[in-house]
Amino acid sequence: MDQKQLIEEIIKLKKERDAIILAHNYQVPEVQDIADIVGDSLALSKHAADTNHKVIVFCGVHFMAESAKILSPDKTVLLPAKDAGCPMAEMVTADRLREMKAQYPEAAVVCYVNSSAEVKAEADICCTSSNAVKVVESIKNKQIIFAPDQNLGSYIAKKVKDKEFILWKGFCITHKRVKEDEVKKIKELYPDAKILAHPECEPEIQALADFLGSTSEIIKEAREIPEKDIIIGTEEGVLHILKKENPDKKFYLLSPGLICQNMKKTRLEDVYLSLLHMQHEITLDENVRLKALKSLERMLEVR
Ligand code: SF4
């Protein structure tokens, strides 16, 4: 099948199955274009919670599809690329988190959504990079265990000064690839450009950026600033929407390393096969799901 036929088949199957396709901003352009909703983790979680469709096809990585299942247990949630995982999410386990909780009994556990359902079940509340500061501010405890992203945790710690943070030592292998000398070189090449970066980058890269935010905040900032040259410090998939929305601006990737192999695993063929064979369905232990649901619902209540 060529691409046009694949797209036609996906649209046909989507209707037959009563499905909605959600795609993360880091997906390949053709997958973003076939999706009903494209967004970051927070936006997609909200859509997963609100949708009336029977089937959710989640074009992203495993923890995202799991979050959709936690929020919508009566829906069939499919992950088209079975082995699309998130190395950061795998850096924390429920057992190790329980050990840390025992060490800091007074602390509240804030868990980045980039984590498994079992880990979310151990947390008091979840957060995304869009709402992390507000989530932490909403907590009464003085001590906060933040897992698994150390860089996002240290970014929040700088903003919320009246808390004591115990940071898990996890990281995003994609954002960690950005090197200081790459930032300096690209700044020399485009001296008038603004650098918009994700807080999953290392602190020394964060310090060199003009703006820090989640993918949706970066997209909004790029739309609003007057600069015509913009350097993007997050996964390259976001360039697709940035270029579409801002045809008069030029975008440059901060580092060629900003490509997440796991996010690129989902192809149109996978979306088609997922709908055709109803594969690969996400299932969860109900006890774990209910506990993880509390953490996600508390997050969604934070305004
Ligand atoms: S970009 Fe980083 S955090 Fe996101 S899925 Fe890839 S490895 Fe995980």
Indicate the topology.
Blueprint: H1 3-17, E1 19-24, H2 29-34, E2 37-39, H3 41-50, E3 55-59, H4 62-71, E4 76-78, H5 94-103, E5 108-112, H6 117-122, E6 125-127, H7 132-137, E7 143-147, H8 150-159, E8 164-167, H9 180-189, E9 194-197, H10 203-208, E10 211-212, H11 215-224, E11 229-233, H12 239-245, E12 250-253, H13 268-277, H14 286-301
Parallel strand pairs: 1-2, 1-3, 3-4, 5-6, 5-7, 7-8, 9-10, 9-11, 11-12
Brief descriptors of the model:
alpha/beta, Rossmann fold, 3 domains, 12 strands, binds iron/sulfur cluster
Q: Give the H and E element order.
A: HEHEHEHEHEHEHEHEHEHEHEHEHH
CATH homologous superfamily designation of the largest domain? NadA-like
- Helix fraction, binned, reads 40-55%
Shape: globular
Uncertain runs: none
**How many beta-strand runs?**
12
Helix/strand class = alpha/beta
What profile does the largest beta sheet have? 4 strands, parallel
Report, as a whole number of angstroms, the end-to-end distance: 46 Å
The CATH class of the largest domain is Alpha Beta
Mean pLDDT: 97
Strands side by side in the biggest sheet: 2-1-3-4
Number of domains: 3
> What is the CA-based Rg, rounded?
19 Å
Tell me which ligands are bound: iron/sulfur cluster
Question: Roughly what fraction of the amino acids lie in strands?
Answer: 15-25%
- Helix segment tally: 14
